[in-house]
Specification:
It is a single chain. This protein is an alpha+beta fold. The strands form 2 sheets. It has a 5-stranded mixed sheet with strand order 2-4-5-7-6, covered by helices on one side. The chain starts with a helix and ends with a strand. It folds into 2 domains: 80 residues, Signal transduction histidine kinase, dimerisation/phosphotransfer (DHp) domain (Helix Hairpins, Orthogonal Bundle); 149 residues, Histidine kinase-like ATPase, C-terminal domain (Heat Shock Protein 90), CATH 3.30.565. It is built from 6 helices and 7 strands; from the N terminus they run ααβααββαββαββ. A hairpin with a 5-residue loop joins strand 6 and strand 7. Helices cover 50% and strands 19% of the residues.
């Protein structure tokens, strides 16, 4: 009984810390947007070039804010609202090709290349929207941390245990081994964490892990022998 109460108290403290962090990370871009808009209103941006700069930065900060809100919405749906999975038969191979194609503008911008290999069509019963979100979050993370003109390897196969194995490998900076056990925690803010996109609380990998867990799967993370990191999604057929 005592252990259960202590665990409940710890969870409550973590929840309070989590929402405190969320409020901080929502305020940061909001204050920045307000500052630049006040600069426009008061005429501080008194040249066309300066006005364009203020507008561009405000738009960029608004995009960050929108992403944070979207992540928070997904995190709440998956972890607290217990929304049931909308299961359907998916051609996972075709889904992967579609998701990779969606990143083409970012890949062109950074002159990166994604190599996709698969063992043919793989049919899996899952929630298309949620699984797409999970894979997108990991792909986005790989693209962000892969250097300009870098390589990303994506491999989809069936293991000897008859599990779907989706591996996404990059040649980015890697993750400190001691940080890997905490990489999916919504409260993890380590300086080297790839769970952060904006210097604040990042929920992308946390959401991906929660979605895969809801499909009775798991995500493995390990540093490559040469350089970079591999995220491996494992799902039971």
């Amino acid at each position: 009984m005592k252990e259960a109460l202590e665990k409940q108290e710890q969870m409550e403290q973590e929840r309070k810390l989590f929402f405190s962090s969320i409020i901080h990370d929502l305020r940061t871009p909001l204050f920045s947007i307000r500052g630049y808009l006040e600069g426009l209103k008061k005429g501080i941006a008194n040249t066309p070039e300066k006005r364009k700069k203020y507008i561009d930065i405000s738009y960029e900060k608004a995009s960050v804010l929108n992403e944070l809100i979207s992540d928070l919405h997904s995190f709440t749906q998956v972890n607290y609202l217990e929304k049931p999975l909308d299961l359907e038969e998916l051609n996972f191979t075709a889904v992967m090709k579609e998701l990779i194609q969606g990143f083409e503008p970012e890949l062109v911008k950074k002159e990166q290349e994604i190599t996709f290999t698969s063992c043919g069509d793989i049919i899996f019963k899952g929630d298309y929207y949620l699984l797409s979100r999970a894979v997108n979050n990991i792909l986005s993370n790989a693209i962000q941390y892969t250097p300009v003109k870098g390589q990303i390897q994506v491999n989809l196969e069936i293991s000897v245990e008859n599990h779907i194995c989706l591996s996404i490998s990059d040649n980015g900076p890697g993750i400190l081994d001691k940080n890997i056990p905490y990489i999916f925690s919504p409260l993890y803010r380590g300086e080297k964490s790839r769970n952060r996109k904006t210097g604040g609380l990042g929920l992308g990998l946390t959401i991906a892990n929660s979605i895969v867990n809801k499909h009775n799967g798991k995500i493995e993370v390990f540093n490559n022998n040469d350089k970079g990191v591999t995220f491996r999604i494992i799902l039971k057929l």
